[in-house]
Design brief:
Strand order of the largest sheet of chain A: 7-8-6-5-9-10-4-3-12-15-14
Distance between the termini of chain A: 94 Å
Number of helices of chain A: 9
Number of strands of chain B: 10
Strand content of chain B: 5-15%
Strand content of chain A: 25-35%
CATH architecture of the domain at 39-297 in chain B: 3-Layer(aba) Sandwich
Shape of chain A: elongated
CATH class of the domain at 39-297 in chain B: Alpha Beta
Helix content of chain A: 10-25%
Radius of gyration of chain A: 34 Å
Oligomer: heterodimer
Radius of gyration of chain B: 33 Å
Strand order of the largest sheet of chain B: 3-2-1-4-8-9-10
Largest sheet of chain B: 7 strands, mixed
Structural class of chain A: alpha+beta
Number of domains of chain A: 2
CATH topology of the domain at 39-297 in chain B: Rossmann fold
Shape of chain B: elongated
Largest sheet of chain A: 11 strands, mixed
Helix content of chain B: 25-40%
Amino acid sequence: MIQETHSDTIVASPVYTRYIYIKKKKRLVASHFCRLPLSVVELFKVGESFTAAARDQFQEELVIRPLHSGDIYASFQFRTLWDTDFLQERQKVSHYRLFPKSLGQVLSKFSVRELHISFTQGFWRTMQWGQPFIPSPPGAELWVWFHDTVSDVDGNWKELTNVLSGIFCASLNFIDLTNTVQPSASFKPLGLGNATDHRFLRYATLPREIVCTENLTPWKKLLPCGSKAGLSVLLKSEKLFHSSFHSQAVHIRPVCQDEQCTSKAWELRQTLNVVFDLYTSGQGKKEWSLFKMFSRTLTEACPLATSSKVYVDITDNPELFELSPATPLLSQAVVLGDRRTYSVFDLTRAEMFGQLRSLNLLLRWKGDSDMLRPLLHAERYVAGFGLQTGEIHTVIYNNHPYRAFPVLLMDSVPWYLQLYIHTLTVTSKSRDNKPSYIHYQPAKDRHRPHLLEMLIQLPPHSMTEVTVQFERALLKWTEYTPDPNHGFYVGSSVVSALVPSMVAMNTNFTQDQPLFSSFVPVKEESSYFVRVYTEPLLVNLPTPDFSMPYNVICLTCTVVAVGYGSFYNLLTRTFQVDEPSLPLAKRLANLIRRIRGVPLLA
Amino acid sequence: MSHDFLQMHLKAVISCLLIFLYKVHTTKAGQFFSSGHTNNWAVLVCTSRFWFNYRHVANTLSVYRSVKRLGIPDSHIVLMLADDMACNYRNPKPATVFSHKNMELNVYGDDVEVDYRGYEVTVENFLRVLTGRLPPSTPRSKRLLSDDRSNILIYLTGHGGNGFLKFQDSEEISNMELADAFEQMWQKRRYNELLFIIDTCQGASMYERFYSPNLMALASSQVGEDSLSHQPDLAIGVHLMDKYTFYLLEFLEEVHPASQANMNDLFKVCPQSQCVSTPGHRTDLFQRDPGSVLITDFFGSVRKVEITKDTINLTSPVEPPIQRSGSGDIQIESLTYVDQLPVAEIIHQKPKQKDWHPPDGFILGLWTLILLVFFQTYGIKHLKHIF
């Protein structure tokens, strides 16, 4: 129910209402999701009384990393940690505070152990930008680990995709068995767990999926502070989508609650990675500020957050660029195999914001420097000509000077590209390189895609090429999309690897580690886990002429009408003599002639 | 005497009744019950694909914006956009869709929820939304959960012709199908009153075949006329809006939740001098007089509010019990994360065979048996013909 209140205070109730009020504008706005009231002070008061009951905490973080091409990479991470058990049978979780209720209900209804969903616009250019903190392929990607108690995994998967398509306003309901695969070795769970039976894993991508404000809006509504306070005020769609790369993701997994790791807690991470281009957003000047990137500045930390920090990467020659306002706080972190230094801005401290109550970071370049080449890089393209056959080439580069390491390549090709797996070749340095593990599941027309997983040992400083030939299938005319001449997309390949690290990685789990370095669990010090996605492919399938049914109907009807019509006329037409009627003058003349007894006119 | 008395009594009663009815009609209580609806829904559909049909998406988003502004929440709006114009790579200003108010009005905004997008906008999905026959796993935001006290606004735009509307350049919906869908809705009591607006070429042909009660329809052009677009924008390179919806948006921007504008004002929007085509409307199936129907009955969600001055006691909030998961069994052993790339384990992993294959040697044994039976029947002397 919507009620108009004329007072300035907000009605705050412990039971979540479905509709929220915007105090200042006195406008009535409603949302799908149960959300907290907006008054910040009231929020804090309500929050305090429930800390005893629901032990959840929220942390937010922004990492800004200047890239060598003059672009700038900003990575937001919002993490909610909650000590509860969604999968218990006896008592359903009904009291939600920081954790969004819509996702909690999804987890308990479908017995989900881990959920990873990402929406990406653009392609991450590894060679120019390095490695991202959290990689994602273009389009939409969803992979889910179900609990072992689930009996019908496919049914749960189908319903889960439908529910998520409603939550994120994306057409995830196009995920069905024709584009879902069950990887046998890739995509191990990122959370706690012992048994990894791959029958409970499902993976699907939609490379065609568009990301726009309608996906960002529900994503922002999942945050405890919404888009009103904290780091999320910077998330304005007009600037975020005018970028080279934009990726938003939701990762849910069980993690260790403390250092002894005796009990589980659920972690929800919402990440948003964006790369602003030097020329389109930066006007060609190597000078970036928060206002230039996001058209907003920071005014306060989210009151519900226990920590709210901004990290700026100043490792690459601190003399080369200037950061203002200067801060004495520095922190070092080992991330992606490299020790980086960061300037830390802690937003929970009020002196950060100065007299103007706003924080606008400014970075100015003074010179250029070299970039470290990323150790692992992959590319993919289609070779061949014509609309019948083709060849898929996947090229993986190992740029380490002396170390070899294994990579796991996973390829999921739709059924309409029929792979000839006997033509599969893997060559490194122009010699045959036999993979130590191959798992191939052939496609079934209209039921299941191809799945190819291979464990390949990459020699040091080399380029490995995987080629396979395919033939294009003819689809039924109802299976074509409304714009078939655009082409059909093939999802990105996934290359997972343990890359040798130059710096010892930190295997201890501590609570005060920055979020960007604690996403992937580290098991050994000498290597770090990285996942690289290749480009998606766009192939043309032989397209029929869709106006043919209309042409055929016209031609057939014409032929039938002309041919049968004339034949019918010939058979049934009879000729009758028709007496023409005389004009009036002649009729009168005939009348007079009849009276006179004289022969009549014709 | 008694007869006169009775007559007088009767007259007094009748006059009292008339006065009472008159009062009811004109007082606030009367207005309270005159419209008959308790909730509002909107189904806004853009049926065209491709960048040069930018104006159809802008049309639909303008109506979406007005409807949201006047109070209908996102949960009660089913928005279907057949293509993405805002984040299209050809859009020089990403995440914006402009209408033609001097390029100032971004109708896409920052808070938009599109329920059906891209390839999902098909005739089948549209009819399923209207009639409610959706698969059970469809989320709530994609359903039209109206009841018999709902007023529904349906807005369609795209390319159309005499008796049909084209969906995404590959299929059409005919006026007979639409009329039948509305009849299904009426029989299932899915609407109280329905306002149908269509902005396409020859739009009036789409409402010719309606036969269910309580329907009011508006179209941007008559049969045989084309609906024209407003000016193009040189920066974006396409036409930004259609003339009819442009003037409709201008009209709706003046409307606010408390305004008393009625349907007769809506019929006057965009006369032929401005629109070049002649907008048409149809009210014969509608039971109330259009002059008494407020614009906000369909475009807004104005609720009747009863203000009370009495105090109401709310119960004190209930403290939920502190949930401790598995407090009985104390886990002593520590949990670990899974190894992300266990190379040794992967190499020695045996591929799981789900399909049943006959046991090894079975085929060999079968062939041996066949050969044995053959040579037993026909004798061993045939062996020399083989070798």
